[in-house]
């Protein structure tokens, strides 16, 4: 590799890894922050009616521009106590089953659904595996692909592996400019490929995890602009841009017939990875 090529590769790696750091920033707005910004009359619903309540997954009913809608998304914590309570935004099977319970209610009452992705991944603990983590994720993929109501997905921070995809099937998939979406963390990728997690910056480029990369690959539909140094520097500004994009996406989805929506959503899911 030439010296110029090496320099260009280094610049790309630094840029991609900076996005990773911004997506993980401790002050970055989370699901509840956006709910407070542009949803009203929010009522949280808890429990999966099978095992337990999972605080890592927020679910509820709200009003959005005069419409009653259902909202769900992963929630991280700001301090040590909150992070432990929210399990660092990593849902267990009951979290995904709670989300599916909410989406089934939305289907029953004919209400649109908004999902917000922000997780390093589904919780990989033994207890989660014993209760069917993989089955819960797979079930959500199946059911979301055939929900008849409008379904809008937004990646607002980290979009990690199946934990993100489990609430990531929608008519429109939006992504904040400094968010990331990947099958594995850069550190995990680096540890596998180069036996060194310190190569995370290099792995960030190879993973094609930035919004621009994913838009080019047709994995997402739209990039939502946010302040260059991160949404945490102007939460209100980032929220206004996201609110506008959500309204546009919802109106576009509502113009389609149920049959058209389902076919487009299914084909979008099937195209992933091509």
Mean pLDDT over all positions: 92
- State the order of secondary-structure elements, H for helix, E for strand: HHEEEHHEHHEHEEHHHEHH
Secondary structure tally, helices: 12
**Strands, total number:** 8
Number of domains: 1
Give the terminus-to-terminus CA distance.
28 Å
What's the CATH topology name?
2-enoyl-CoA Hydratase, Chain A, domain 1
CATH H-level superfamily: 2-enoyl-CoA Hydratase, Chain A, domain 1
CATH architecture: Alpha-Beta Complex
Task: Write down the Rg.
Answer: 18 Å
Low-confidence stretches at least 5 residues in length (pLDDT < 50)?
Answer: 3-11
Which percent bin holds the helix content?
40-55%
Query: What is the molecular shape?
Result: globular
Quaternary state of the chains: single chain
Q: What structural category arises from helix and sheet content?
A: alpha/beta
Strand residue percentage: 15-25%
